[in-house]
Write a structure and sequence with these properties.
The chain is of the alpha/beta class and 285 residues long. Strand 7 and strand 8 form a beta hairpin. The chain has a seven-stranded mixed β-sheet. 22% of the residues lie in helices and 22% in strands. The chain has one domain: Metallo-beta-lactamase, Chain A, CATH 3.60.15. Bound molecules: zinc ion (3 copies). The site of one zinc ion has 4 residues, from loops.
């Protein structure tokens, strides 16, 4: 499985769109892996995780062939994960030549409702009919082509929506957890983790950087939390020496630049994501 991080920031990006705090200025000055766009990842070029406002930028930056995407999994309807208007220029006269004209979209009912509200009056029938919607329920596994996908309920600001994190397994048995956005997982999610084989990749929400989620930021975690969570995952066997544990989804409000995050993560055997980071996951020997 080829897993590529396209964007690794929280909602406002880092440097943030409208901010000139010292951490935005430090990131801009340092450049490189400290320039983070809104969160998105792609698997094998045909499964897209989330559709942020930076999707077009990601296509340009990484030379993606987005017309080949057959499956779109949306974690939740916050703007950094789902910009529904983008789908109104998919297909029809806006993209008459595509590798995969049809696309299956997997999401919560509230995410589909947001799509309906945002695209009403703008999307045409041809674009609309090329999208095939699958409304997910927590813990109900679905098959997205070669991928077995289980939506798990995220501990994230609800605002009337059902946020999901995903467990994705490909035909070779490569097992990936994409855990964005979420605070500490619900007990029933830990019960699910305990029943699973060790993962090949676990991608963990580190929005709060140096600040623990206990300090008042709901629905996310910080690096101190992730160090503890990975330890717990190792204790229950979800992670072992073969598992790549990766911190991802960062905010200027968490303060730590890439190298500072690595200084915390690396001694614990944890990696730090950056825009464009590509992982070749080969499964277990
Ligand atoms: Zn987010
Ligand atoms: Zn800032
Ligand atoms: Zn969110």
């Amino acid at each position: 499985m080829k897993f590529q991080y396209l964007g690794t920031a929280a909602a406002e990006g880092w440097p943030a769109v409208f901010c000139k705090c010292e951490h935005c200025l430090r990131a801009a000055e340092a450049g490189g892996k400290n320039i983070r766009t809104r969160s998105q990842a792609i698997i094998n070029g045909d499964l897209l995780l989330d559709l942020p406002p930076d999707t077009y930028l990601h296509k340009l930056q990484h030379g993606l062939e987005l017309s080949a995407v057959k499956y779109l999994l949306v974690t939740h309807c916050h703007m950094d994960h789902f910009y529904p208007q983008e789908l109104s220029i998919r297909g029809s006269c806006y993209s008459p030549v595509m590798e995969s004209p049809e696309m299956d979209v997997y999401c919560a009912a509230e995410t589909k409702a947001l799509f309906d509200r945002c695209t009403a009056g703008e999307i045409d029938e041809a674009s609309m009919s090329a999208l095939h919607w699958h409304i997910l329920q927590p813990f109900e596994t679905v098959q997205a082509g070669p991928y077995t996908v289980t939506p798990l309920p995220a501990n994230h600001m609800g605002q009337g929506n059902q946020p999901f994190v995903y467990h994705i397994v490909d035909e070779q048995g490569v097992s990936v957890y994409y855990l964005h956005d979420s605070g500490y997982y619900f007990p029933e999610v830990w019960d699910y983790f305990k029943r699973q084989k060790p993962a090949d990749l676990i991608s963990l929400d580190t929005t709060n950087g140096e600040i623990s989620y206990n300090n008042g930021y709901g629905g996310h975690m910080g690096a101190p939390d992730i160090l503890r969570v990975v330890q717990e995952m190792r204790e229950i066997g979800l992670a072992d020496e073969h598992t790549r544990c990766v911190m991802n989804h960062f905010s200027h409000n968490g303060h730590l630049l890439h190298e500072e995050l690595e200084a915390l993560a690396r001694p614990e055997g944890i990696e730090v994501a950056y825009d464009g980071m590509t992982l070749e996951l080969t499964g277990r020997p």
